[in-house]
Design brief:
Bound molecules: 2-acetamido-2-deoxy-beta-D-glucopyranose
GO molecular function, one term: lactoperoxidase activity
Catalytic activity: 2 a phenolic donor + H2O2 = 2 a phenolic radical donor + 2 H2O
Strand content: under 5%
Keywords: Calcium, Disulfide bond, Heme, Iron, Metal-binding, Oxidoreductase, Peroxidase, Signal
Number of domains: 1
Largest sheet: none
Number of strands: 0
Family: Belongs to the peroxidase family.
Helix content: 40-55%
Oligomer: single chain
Radius of gyration: 19 Å
Order of helices and strands: HHHHHH
CATH class: Mainly Alpha
Distance between the termini: 36 Å
Low-confidence stretches: none
CATH topology: Peroxidase, domain 1
Cofactor: heme b; Ca(2+)
Length: 179
């Protein structure tokens, strides 16, 4: 009797946790208005292929780019949303996010710049750097043997990038997220 009860109560806890997390994830992850997976289907149909081409090239050279792109994406999204702000350069009067302590050793910015240049050549002024980063992180993960996930596109690039905001917002310790 006792083992059976223990089994069913832990089963209940597991099941209800899964249901809770699924509900939470569904509640926070629907695409924002204007975003869609097929955002560039008409305006730059070759975008996905171009990004994948470059990501394949980088991973062949160095498989740790999968981690690098995911860290870059996480650090971009955490500060002011996924707006490409982590890619911006400092100016004479502003120290950008990339100078933040938490962003020490951040890699992949040069690579995103290179993909952006290729996309500007193919479809001038269409694909945002924020979206390039989102796709690159996903594609690199898949190529490294990880899971595929759908990405919503149509993000606009931000113009604000401040190192102190990154240091104030990004945790030095990252806890696993159910999403
Ligand atoms: C930042 O500066 C580098 C080097 O000058 C340049 O290649 C890159 O395009 C710049 N990035 C942005 C987002 O302006």
């Amino acid at each position: 009797m006792a083992p059976a009860r223990a089994f069913s109560s832990s089963w209940l806890i597991i099941t209800s946790s899964v249901v809770l997390f699924a509900t939470l994830c569904a509640a926070i992850s629907p695409y924002a208005p204007g975003l869609s997976e097929s955002y560039y289907a008409k305006s730059c149909p070759q975008a996905a292929e171009i990004i994948e081409h470059y990501v394949t090239k980088y991973l062949k050279k160095d498989s740790t780019f999968a981690g690098a792109f995911n860290r870059l994406q996480f650090h971009d999204c955490w500060v002011g949303g996924c707006d490409g702000s982590v890619l911006l350069n400092s100016t004479a009067t502003n120290s950008a996010e990339r100078e933040a302590h938490v962003n020490f050793g951040l890699r992949g910015i040069k690579e995103v710049d290179e993909i952006k240049a290729a996309l500007e050549y193919a479809c001038p002024g269409v694909v945002s750097c924020a979206d390039i980063l989102i796709i690159a992180a996903r594609d690199a993960t898949v190529k490294a043997g990880g899971p595929w996930w759908p990405v919503a596109l149509g993000r606009k690039d931000g113009s604000e990038s401040v190192d102190l905001l990154a240091d104030a917002n990004l945790p030095f310790l990252v806890f696993p997220s159910p999403c």
